[in-house]
Structures are given as structure tokens and as C-alpha cells.
């Protein structure tokens, strides 16, 4: 049933077909110390109908395309039913300190995460650590990577709802741009997103705009829920027209949504975008409709990624300090690795960067 090229036969040199290392990883007590034992990788393999080698691939995070998604899920289900989890002592026996940390982001193509990675890399170099980046891993995949012990600790940045929960309790982990309530007991470094969104709306209102559009992300994540709640509070009393956009579809999807937002009578004279990639799509839609920025339409983005300065005219946007977020997160993680309880970090300040995409009515 296994789709691993390593076949179905149990591998190992122990009397049960399981190596001493696998026994250490499983937490099984030596024979003669009582009848109770923890489930092993061999037990998981038997229940899932796969080889032990396939189980090892999955829990080491090395399965890739060698093991199908259906088989990986069958192995995870079997592990949950048995209560199987590689133990911390076994991880230390296998690797000790690997010198590597994992930075998990929802979408590596998101330019903001490049800023975060820059900060993480810089701080990691000071501590002699290397950084590996994962993109789009769900909670189960993150838990597998943590349990396998390939990484000393995890940084999880701007997690979407599929990435929340499931990490082993003994895994050093820090969450960035995330909901502290969703990760009790874990250090969390937040951005002051609400203040940034208020600054964006107040800037437009101060320029005399009373009819404001909002291109909001439908991505299911805490970071966007905070932005949207802050926009609703700041724009109370203004005439608002909102339209949803899927960020994972890129700027072309944003262009389509922006065209709908701007077409027809009663169009807004200013638009706030949930991020700068959406704003770039809005620029194209405005040009197609013959609208000039900022003479006919003021635009504000959020993130302050490099493209913001390259747009014509340069984009007014809320700077989210990605580099500082990465540095602060890695500092928290190294404290955990040293056995310390990190001091809480206040929400990192966001700043409205006013460029030439906004003008008075």
C-alpha cells in the first residue's frame, strides 16, 4: 500500500525490525521494565498499512512527492489514534542541536515576508543559526517538522487559520503577526496594525475624502481580521464601499476587483487596500478606466514593500516593520533555546509613509 520507493518491509536492525534509534525516538521503555510502552513508528506503519521507512519519511518532513497526500494523511491519522509522537529525548539523541530554525510563512511569494526573512537572517547570524523557510505548510505539517527534531525551534509568521494549533508542547516556537489568544503560553510578537489602519483612514479623511472604497482580503488570517476591524472603526461616519479580493490570486485578481469597485456612478474618491500588491492592481484598473492618481483617485496601501516606491506615482502606504518583526521574533526564540522565558515585546509601531498617491479633494 505504501507509495514510498523504499518498499513495505520494516527497516532496522532491532529484533523487532526497529532500530535502537527508532526505539529511542518512540519513547518505548526497554524490555523488562514493565508491560507498558509507548507506540512506535512500527506500530504506526502496521496500522496505516505502510512501511516503517515511509512513516519515517513523513515524520522527518522529507516525504515531499515521494509519499502521496492521501498516504501522509493516513499515517497522521494512525499516529493520532495510537498517540504516537517522537519524544524530545529521542530528537536530541538523533541530532542534538541542529543549528537550524524554521521560518514558516503562508505564502513565500508575498513580498512582505522577504522583509521578515531579512530580519530573521540578520539576527540568526549573530547567534550562529541557519534559517530554513517553509511556505504554505498547514498545522499538521508544522507539527511533523517539529516532532522530527530537524529544527531547534520554529518561527511562524502571519499564520492563516490552517496553520494554527497542533505543535508539540515541548517545541520552542514563537509566533509573529499572530493572535496571542490562539497560542497561549507561546511568545507572540505583534504589529500595531490597528494604529496603522487608523492612520490611513484619518489621512484620507483629513484630505477631505468622505466616499472611501476598501479592497479587503478574504484570506482567513488574524492579521487581516485586525486590519478590517480597524478600518470599520476608523471609517465610521464615512460613506464606504467594500469589495473582497483573494490575495493568493495576485495583482490580476486585485485589478479585476478594483475595476468593479471603480466602475459606474458613485465611485469612491479614495481607496484603502489591505496590502500593496492589491494597490498595484488598483493602479492598473484606474489607468484602464482613465482615472488619474491622485487627481481623480487617492490610494493608500499597507506593507510598504519595495514596489510601493516603484509605482507611478509612488504609493502612500502603511509601513509594517518586517525586518524588526523578524529580528524580535528570532531574539525571542533564542531566549527559549537558552532555557529562558522571553520578556513580552510591545506591539511594533507602524507608520504611515505619505508619498504622491494621495491628494486633497
From TrEMBL:
The keyword DNA-binding applies. SUPFAM superfamilies: lambda repressor-like DNA-binding domains (SSF47413), Periplasmic binding protein-like I (SSF53822). The keyword DNA-binding applies. Gene3D superfamilies: 3.40.50.2300, lambda repressor-like DNA-binding domains (1.10.260.40). Residues 39-95 form the HTH lacI-type domain. One of its GO terms (molecular function) is DNA binding. Keywords: DNA-binding, Transcription, Transcription regulation. It holds the Pfam family Peripla_BP_3. Residues 1-19 have a biased composition (Low complexity). It comes from the Bacteria. Residues 1-41 are annotated as: Disordered. This is LacI family DNA-binding transcriptional regulator. It comes from Kitasatospora saccharophila. The lineage of its organism: Bacteria, Bacillati, Actinomycetota, Actinomycetes, Kitasatosporales.
Amino acid at each position: 500500500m505504501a507509495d514510498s520507493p523504499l518498499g513495505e518491509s520494516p527497516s532496522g536492525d532491532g529484533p523487532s525490525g526497529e532500530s535502537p534509534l527508532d526505539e529511542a525516538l518512540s519513547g518505548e521503555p526497554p524490555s523488562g521494565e514493565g508491560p507498558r510502552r509507548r507506540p512506535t513508528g512500527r506500530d504506526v506503519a502496521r496500522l496505516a498499512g505502510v512501511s516503517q521507512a515511509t512513516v519515517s519519511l513523513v515524520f522527518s518532513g522529507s516525504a515531499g512527492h515521494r509519499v502521496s497526500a492521501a498516504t501522509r494523511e493516513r499515517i497522521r491519522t494512525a499516529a493520532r489514534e495510537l498517540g504516537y509522537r517522537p519524544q524530545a529525548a529521542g530528537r536530541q539523541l538523533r541530532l542534538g542541536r541542529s543549528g537550524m530554525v524554521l521560518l514558516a510563512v503562508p505564502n513565500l511569494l508575498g513580498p512582505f515576508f522577504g522583509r521578515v526573512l531579512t530580519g530573521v537572517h540578520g539576527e540568526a547570524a549573530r547567534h550562529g543559526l541557519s534559517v530554513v523557510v517553509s511556505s504554505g505548510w498547514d498545522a499538521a505539517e508544522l507539527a511533523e517538522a517539529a516532532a522530527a527534531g530537524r529544527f531547534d525551534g520554529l518561527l511562524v509568521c502571519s499564520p492563516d487559520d490552517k496553520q494554527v494549533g497542533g505543535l508539540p508542547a515541548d517545541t520552542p516556537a514563537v509566533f509573529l503577526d499572530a493572535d496571542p489568544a490562539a497560542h497561549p503560553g507561546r511568545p507572540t510578537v505583534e504589529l500595531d496594525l490597528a494604529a496603522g489602519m487608523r492612520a490611513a483612514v484619518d489621512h484620507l479623511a483629513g484630505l477631505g475624502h468622505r466616499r472611501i472604497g476598501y479592497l479587503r482580503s478574504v484570506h482567513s488570517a488574524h492579521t487581516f481580521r485586525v486590519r478590517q476591524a480597524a478600518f470599520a472603526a476608523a471609517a465610521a461616519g464615512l460613506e464606504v464601499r467594500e469589495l473582497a479580493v483573494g490575495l493568493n490570486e495576485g495583482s490580476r485578481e486585485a485589478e479585476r476587483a478594483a475595476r468593479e469597485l471603480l466602475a459606474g456612478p458613485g465611485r469612491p474618491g479614495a481607496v484603502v487596500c489591505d496590502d500593496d500588491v492589491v494597490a498595484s492592481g488598483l493602479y492598473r484598473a484606474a489607468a484602464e478606466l482613465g482615472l488619474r492618481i491622485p487627481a481623480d483617485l487617492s490610494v493608500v496601501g499597507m506593507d510598504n514593500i519595495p514596489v510601493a516606491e516603484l509605482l507611478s506615482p509612488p504609493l502612500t502606504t502603511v509601513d509594517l516593520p518586517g525586518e524588526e518583526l523578524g529580528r524580535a521574533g528570532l531574539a525571542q526564540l533564542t531566549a527559549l533555546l537558552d532555557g529562558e522565558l522571553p520578556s513580552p515585546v510591545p506591539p511594533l509601531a507602524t507608520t504611515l509613509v505619505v508619498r504622491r498617491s494621495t491628494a486633497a479633494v
